[in-house]
Every structure is written in C-alpha cells, then in structure tokens.
Specification:
The chain is α/β, with parallel strands linked by helices and about 240 residues long. The protein folds into two domains: about 1-95 and about 205-240, 3-Layer(aba) Sandwich (D-Maltodextrin-Binding Protein, domain 2); about 100-195, 3-Layer(aba) Sandwich (D-Maltodextrin-Binding Protein, domain 2), CATH 3.40.190. It has ten helices and ten strands. The chain has a five-stranded mixed beta sheet with strand order 2-1-3-10-4. It has a five-stranded mixed beta sheet with strand order 7-6-8-5-9, with helices on both faces. Helix 2 (about 35-50) links the parallel strand 1 and strand 2. Helix 1 (about 1-15) packs across helix 3 (about 60-70). It is elongated and about 55 Å long.
Amino acid sequence: MKRIALLFCLCLALACGPAFAADTLTLASGAGYKKMVEELAATFEKETGITVERLYGNMGQVTGMARESGKVDIVAGDKRYLDGTDLAFAGETVIGKGRLVLAVTKGAPVAALKDLAKPEVKRVAMPDAQKAIYGRAADEYMESTGSRAALKDKLIVVGTVPQVSAYVLSGEVDAGFINLTDALAIKDKVERILTVDESAYKPILIVAKPLAQAPHAKAVERFTAFLGSKAARDIAARHGL
C-alpha cells in the first residue's frame, strides 16, 4: 500500500507541476546518488535554462514510477538492474563506477571489516538487496567473504542508502553499508569510512538511460550531451564515481 501511495503522489505531483513544459525534463534516480544528481541538475539548468524535475527512491521505486506514470524521461542507476527491467530505453550514457563502503558510527569498535563479527558490534545496516544496488553489493560481499553467518542476526535492512546513512548518523547502528557517494557527504560525521574490496562484489556501473517514449525528447538530448561534458564528469568524480 505504501508503494501504491508513493506512486500516486508522484504521479499527481508530475501532473500538477511544470513537467508538461517544453523546457522541462523528468529524471528518476536511485536515492544513493541524490547529492550528485542535484549538482548535475543544477549545473545543467544554469547552462541551458531547462528545468530538471527530480524523483528519488530505491531502484524498484524509480523504475516503477517510470513504468506507471509515463512522464519520466530518464532513469539513472545501476546498469545491471536497469538492463534487467522491462522498460524500453533508447541508449545510455555512463556516469561512472559505483563503489561499496562501510560507514562506521562515531565511537563504534570497528576498525576493519572483519570487526563486524565482534560480539560488541550489535547492529549493522544495509539497503534492501532486492531493491537497492548497494544492498545487493553488500549481500554479494557477505557471500564471497563467508561472513553472512556471523552477521545475519545483526543486520538491519532498510529501503535505501540514505536511510542506512541516517541510521549510522543517529547511532542506531554500529555501521552501515552504503556507496562512496553518500559516504563522502557524511565523512566528517562518522568514525571512519572503510572501503570494501571491489573483487568481493560484482562491478557497479552507474548510467543514465532515456526512456524510448520520453515525453521531452529534445531536452533529453541536451541533458545526455551534458552528461558527456567535462563539467559533468568533474561533478561525478567529486561524488566518488
């Protein structure tokens, strides 16, 4: 019911807002990349005068919105996830490579990933592996390192990367698996950021994929061209991609 209500509210917002204007496009993105997408959108708007309406959620939510509303122009997120959906896309632009990290709560006894198995570490947050890129990556990490058994009773599963970060910042968990992009935004508010070996999970390629039936095709063309610019690449690099 919550998902239906969310989609209804987003559809209503799009229908009532300026999304029908010729100088507007709608971008749906994984919530873990909100800060980067906000900067990309703001820079693009300043350069072109085209408004970018932004929607965020886990990948299940944003692809559901793209499928059911008919008003989303571009979806940004994990290539593997998007390629596995039934959405009809018209090409893609690579934004960068995603990286899984562990954010450690202030004062928590975690100096290395192996410390998550310590009995004094009580709660570890991760995004939902069925709906979020970095939940899937965390799941793959546990599987490939044989650490699942030691962590299964400690795991707190939430919907998105920002929710994991919120749990870490509030001290409700000892640590949480998130992406490097979100980690860079909170690095001064946590004990430390631990990088997860990239060989322990499948590669994460972050792409922007226009919908084949995008309502604002010309604006989409301009945004896609912008993503290939040095300005956009520099923004992505600053956000850990």
